[in-house]
């Protein structure tokens, strides 16, 4: 035993040495680490070194190094699960020591017949010896993504692709340009599959999906700083867990928003102004290249392409207007200028985007041109589609024609004046109502051709048999989805309707489509943008359902493929609560059966009522921002002079929470799932692990410490010693999903916890459609007192409700938090947990949120409205996404009876009102002129302590004390990093603790 411990200690030292010299989060391991024979054998079985790996048990007892070695020699993310708490503790401890816990290694205890992951997530599973004979191969198959592999001791299992899965292999699903999926598995109701990077997209964006991968091409115009990083980038993403598999730079100068991208089972066809590249789906390397002889066409530029039965068809033509790459210096999330960017006026068909005269048919295997045909006039590729062995194409104002794809012969050509007059000239687009000038406007079914879209004044229908006019509708700015039961035409205001194919007669009205985003369809739904969020039209009942946190992205809409639905990323942040590449899947069989999962409440000691006392002073800081109202106030005096006493390192690999201070101790969590307790000299007293990220700080109450974790649980500890007392799973199931690089519960306890009297309040959830779960727990025993599981669907009529989008606080005997897009603030009765919000039946969202746990770059700036005893008021407004703010100001007292202006919590409307002069005016007694932004406040009777940075210098963070009466700085300390959100605390003796984004704690006290 002594030899074993000695070996283990030496190994830890070795790993610590490695972490000093090796970048932990590099894209590819630069140096291979020495591995054991067990690890080496597993590495040889891997098909890819990227993705999500599940490890069940260890190869042998005390072999936690296996998990670390697996991660260090690949780019895998690993979820480790074991029945043995000792094994879980080993993996957590070792992973923490080498900086991988909560970054790429996640570990938790679980039963033998249930894996705590969502379905269709894992690329590979290793069932190790200490797991024994795995009881449920059905469970392995559930968690594996299609074509994923599970390795058991004596066998392996490969998951087949489910029957009924469909691919979205062309930008509009198929070359008929009808964005209607035939996927039989992507059915409602839904649960979140993953939330992933990238969060934001340049303009334009175009996507296809096939073979278990999603391919996204990002264009040349950034409207915000957050889009610059992926300008002119092609990205391949794992369709089931959101892992970015590879990236390639796209050639600059080529406008990508067109049909020149096709996904297949093992390759991506990506055409540009030189050739069509055949890119290997696994590696991202160019496997082959197809170049068209310029003698055959007017030039080398690919304008359009489609594939049928393995043959590639394309429109080739002249060189075009070269577009310029435009970076942006504008900060913030949302809103961007519409305009006629270079080339978007389509002024000359000879060099306009997508105009060409030569169609070709190509065998990709040998690159042989099977036939080609050249027209005299230029064809607009926005008016080209293909179905049933025919290519239909339009030459603006001149003719509509049809080619047979088998022989390249023209089937018919129609220049009927009535048809051309009805279609009309291309109208100006590039407006948030009409949409993009580059959008395709011709679609086809078996029997009909349809002209509609941003450039059209009318919806015009022609016969696919001969091209003659059949009928038209007055409005043409319609996004069409063609289904067997009718034409679904999503339009602005009252123009949306369902139409009969033969007559054009209106069958039903559709909800209003807001703005430019295209409509798409699944087997049971039509998706398009409403006024904030997504409207899901249930086609069987014609009822409107609301998916509030995200709207369909501008140019893609909702992509339906691989049995899943995909949203984002976005070019703007208009009224969104969730950003990024978001995937939903069917709720059915999306997690392990609840009968197989561990109990919700777990106790770790039989002495729950007997804890070591912690002497808390009334003026300590035991909860986030000082009290349950988050008032950021204290009675403790802030020193007139101060100095740095000490610093301590909480974490080097993750963002820490704000600190809480009580009983001569400091408590802080971090996004690796670790809770650390320090004394007032900066010495670490104890450390404990949870199964997920901790976003808000621990709360101290009645000698106990309570914390909410992203694993979906609330944990209780003895505050003095860290002894575990109990935990309670607020989440309805154990179901971890990838969320921006971490594995967390579909229902994380992401808003922290609040404790009042003998009750702990917690909320679990991300989005209303997954469910929002509110609990009241006995603080001593962890037993459930009350719960509310229905507010995620507060409005049954449209299926929308409360989303957890803010930290919890108590005000006016109500539990409250920011609630997402439909309800600004969620409100619950403290005793019954009845939701007090009035249900809204409107399919719209209006409130803005950048929730700090998921968007720490945006949600960290704080606003303050603090009323002094004499009714003077300290005011600072910061917009939710950090783009605009007001200076910190002391305002004169409101006159008796004068109404106080109500401000939106997000402060976005407040900023707009300020710019237009509509804000309520009061005299400023003083105004900070240093243009400073703040992440934390502490208000004492005479002094306000602030942490932040100058607006133009985010790399110059500070901690400053300001005299409230005069508005002058008493003292300032430069900080090595910015304070985290609400990241200052103070104790009864005036000692100030600051938690920094670099993982440090700093203590300042009276000089």
From TrEMBL:
UniProt cross-references to InterPro entries, sorted A to Z: PQQ_b-propeller_rpt, PQQ_rpt_dom, Quinoprotein_ADH-like_sf, WD40/YVTN_repeat-like_dom_sf
Signal peptide range in chain numbering: 1-26
Chain intervals for the UniProt region annotation (Disordered): 162-186
A Pfam short name: PQQ_2
Record field: compositional bias (Polar residues): 177-186
UniProt entry tagged with the keyword Signal: yes
Protein name, entry field: Outer membrane biogenesis protein BamB
Presence of keyword Signal: yes
Biased composition (Basic and acidic residues): 166-176
Keywords in alphabetical order: Signal
Species this protein is from: Gimesia aquarii
Every Pyrrolo-quinoline quinone repeat domain range: 643-824
Taxonomic superkingdom: Bacteria
